[in-house]
Request: fold
Amino acid sequence: MRITLYCFLGVILSSLCAMFSWLKTFFQRGGATNPDGLGADRAAAGAAGERAAAEFLQRERGFAVVARNWRSPRDRRDELDLVCREGEVLVFVEVKTRAAHALVPGYDAINARKKKALRRAGATYLRALGAAQPRTFRFDVVEVATPAGGGPPEVRHFENVPLFPKNFV
Reply:
């Protein structure tokens, strides 16, 4: 009877050790591997994607970057990846970096919750400008697809994405 009990406790202890080892690995690498293939390097990949997007917009579209990673002073969760100017138009840009083989493209990854946060951040940014607020502004999405084997990323630019209602601000 005792031998059976000891064997049973040994199996449970072994299972618990394996589970804790897995949890330790899980939390050390920053959570589960994402379906987009970025894993623990999400922040670095996102920053590289934002740099690639800014370079693309400046070089190919003639944008002037006004701000990068602008955060609302009232609520630090509200962030605008890029704030740019295209002539007289103020452009809020959301950058989505994905692996080239990702199942969900960056454009489609912007859900209703993210749109609400972007509207809130855009309104806060415009209020902060005060009298210098531009007459025209819009929201763009830049999707950066990083190839699996390295190489230059593929950048896609979606202009004037419907985010702001007609009576906004």
Remarks:
- The chain is about 40% helix and 25% strand.
- Strands lie at 64-71, 79-86, 89-99, 137-146, 154-158.
- Residues 2-28 form the longest helix (27 residues).
